[in-house]
Design a protein that fits this description.
The protein contains eight helices and ten strands. The chain starts with a strand and ends with a helix. It folds into two domains: 198 residues, Nucleoside phosphorylase domain (Rossmann fold), CATH 3.40.50; 65 residues, no CATH class. The protein is of the alpha/beta class. Strands 1, 2, 3, 4, 5, 6, 7, 8, 9 and 10 form a ten-stranded mixed sheet that branches. Helices cover 39% and strands 21% of the residues.
C-alpha cells in the first residue's frame, strides 16, 4: 500500500517554481491546470482567489484515491510583520462568509503561527494582527472534505505590509521569498509526510479483508463491521497474520463476523 501523497496548492507559477525545482516535480500534460508530480507529491497551480483554490483542490483530489496530506503555500500580507517571514496558520477564516477552520498540530514545528483571513480582493487596509491572502479559505474548505485537520495546513510568507504594499510585489520577488524559506518549508513537508505515513500504517486494512470479501457476500454494513474487526485484530497482534482455522466450516458472512468477534473477545479477556 502507498504511504499517501503530499498535495500542494499554490496560486502562482512564481510561487511554484522553487518547489518544482527542489522536489524534482515533472509537468503532467493534458490537465485543466498546470500540474506537476513525483511518486509521492503533486503540485497544482490554481490561479488567484478562493474559488480557484477550492476548484483546483477538488481537481487534485480526483486524480488519486490515496490518502493525502494537503498544503497551501504562498504569499500573504500583514500590517506589521517583516517581509520574508514565514508563518503556519493556526486559524483560517473567510472574510466574506465569516467561516473559520482550525488546523490540527500533532507534531513539533519551529515555524511561528498566525491567524489568516482570506479576502475576495487584494487588501490595502490591513486588519488587526492577521495575515491576509486570497486563497487559503477556499483551499481549506475544499481540502477538509478529503482528510482531517491535522493533515491540512497553510504556510504563508509575508510579501507586503503597511509600509510596503501590494504594488511592490512582482514575480521575481515572490520566487525569492519562497526560495529563501525553502529549507524550512521542506522540513515541514517532510514532517507532514512522516506523520501521514505513520497514520496510514496504523489504519491500513489487512490483506485478509479482501480475501474474506471474495469468499463470502457481505452487505455494505457488514463490510464496515468486517473492516473494523480485522483492523482491531491487526492492532492487538501487530505483525501477526490473521488465520481463520475454521474457515471451511463458516457458512456465511454472519458466521464470519461472529467468529471474528468471539476470537477477539477471548483475546481481550485473556
Amino acid at each position: 500500500m502507498g504511504l499517501g501523497m503530499i498535495n500542494i496548492i499554490v496560486a502562482l507559477d512564481c510561487e511554484a517554481k522553487p518547489l518544482i525545482t527542489h522536489f524534482d516535480l515533472q509537468r503532467q500534460q493534458r490537465h485543466a491546470y498546470p500540474l506537476y508530480h513525483s511518486a509521492n507529491m503533486q503540485l497544482i497551480v490554481s490561479g488567484v482567489g478562493m474559488l480557484n483554490a477550492a476548484t483546483a483542490t477538488g481537481y487534485l483530489a480526483g486524480l488519486s484515491n490515496d490518502s493525502a496530506a494537503w498544503l497551501n503555500i504562498g504569499i500573504a500580507g500583514h500590517q506589521t510583520h517583516t517581509l520574508g517571514e514565514l508563518y503556519l496558520a493556526h486559524k483560517i477564516s473567510n472574510q466574506q462568509t465569516e467561516q473559520s477552520w482550525y488546523p490540527g498540530f500533532t507534531f513539533k514545528c519551529k515555524i511561528p503561527t498566525a491567524g489568516l483571513t482570506s479576502f475576495a480582493e487584494p487588501v490595502t487596509d490591513y486588519h488587526d494582527d492577521l495575515l491576509h491572502d486570497m486563497e487559503a479559505a477556499g483551499f481549506y474548505q475544499a481540502a477538509s472534505r478529503f482528510n482531517s485537520a491535522e493533515f491540512i495546513h497553510c504556510l504563508k510568507i509575508v510579501s507586503d505590509n503597511a509600509e510596503r504594499g501590494t504594488h511592490n510585489i512582482n514575480k521575481h520577488m515572490v520566487t525569492e521569498l519562497i526560495t529563501t524559506k525553502l529549507e524550512t518549508i521542506v522540513e515541514f513537508t517532510n514532517a507532514l509526510a512522516a506523520q501521514l505515513a505513520r497514520w496510514n500504517e496504523i489504519t491500513a486494512t489487512p490483506g485478509i479483508y479482501a480475501e474474506l470479501l471474495q469468499r463470502w457476500h457481505f452487505s455494505t454494513y457488514q463490510q464496515h463491521q468486517l473492516k473494523q474487526l480485522v483492523k482491531r485484530w491487526s492492532t492487538l497482534h501487530p505483525g501477526q497474520e490473521l488465520v481463520i482455522a475454521k474457515l471451511p466450516s463458516l457458512r456465511n458472512s454472519r458466521d464470519v463476523l461472529h467468529y471474528l468477534q468471539k476470537s477477539l473477545d477471548i483475546v481481550v479477556e485473556a
